[in-house]
Design brief:
homodimer; 109 residues; alpha+beta; Arc Repressor Mutant, subunit A; 57% helix; DNA-binding
Chain lengths: 109, 109
DNA sequence: ATTTAATATCGTAATATTGCGATATAAATT
DNA sequence: AATTTATATCGCAATATTACGATATTAAAT
């Protein structure tokens, strides 16, 4: 075992969960917050800022890119990373729909 | 390796990430949605609804309980699970602060 | 008292994730 | 052309997660 049984769930549930999973790591939260604060940055800035190895930062950036939330554009010998605004807004909508839904509690609890 | 270096991040980042991590599994999303729809349910309902083994559901419920988002109260030979409203609202506030922050994009990207 | 029902926990196998050194690639600098 | 700089990828070790069968526990039903 060790494999999530994605076939048991609705596409929407798998999609939401896989996005939340990517965000569920402090390095990736820190990376996003740094990019948001600085507007944009390069990989090496994050290596210095966070204190993880360059290979590790690069891997986290790859995962963030994979869900589309950030974008990297080549600028000479470095890569400029920034938030992908369209996708960020999509995520906002999706997360708001989930987290801001009205929860009604039964008396028993 | 294989250990997240939590000492590198701010408490807030670790807290947010660990909560998102728990939500980053489709079974746990499905469980939350089912509880929200039904107002409350027992473990066995979820076993039938989701098609995972009882031990597996019980483990997922344990993780959701660990972050406080659900609560279980004994009712005879079963346990009634429901959303913990106070914590849910806390999470709403925390997630909204993160996801609904204003993101400004640099021209380069 | 015995059986049934619901849940939790233990142990374990399969797989995934995290982190990093080493190396590859590619652009800028000397 | 050689060096420097920035990043990506590979391969690996350590650890974490997922899932489940088996078993334990506890309350209700017979």
């Amino acid at each position: 075992m060790g494999v999530t049984k994605t076939e048991l769930y609705k596409d929407e549930q798998n999609k939401l969960a896989s996005r939340l999973k990517v965000l569920g790591h402090p390095a990736r939260i820190a990376i996003l917050q740094y990019i948001i604060n600085q507007k944009a940055c390069i990989c090496n800035d994050l290596v210095e800022e966070l204190g993880l190895a360059q290979a590790t930062i690069s891997q986290h950036l790859k995962e963030l890119k994979a869900i589309g939330i950030i974008q990297g554009s080549i600028e000479g010998k470095s890569v400029c990373y920034c938030i992908e605004e369209q996708i960020w807004k999509q995520f906002q909508t999706e997360f708001n729909a989930f987290f801001n839904q009205d929860v009604k509690i039964k008396q028993c609890c």
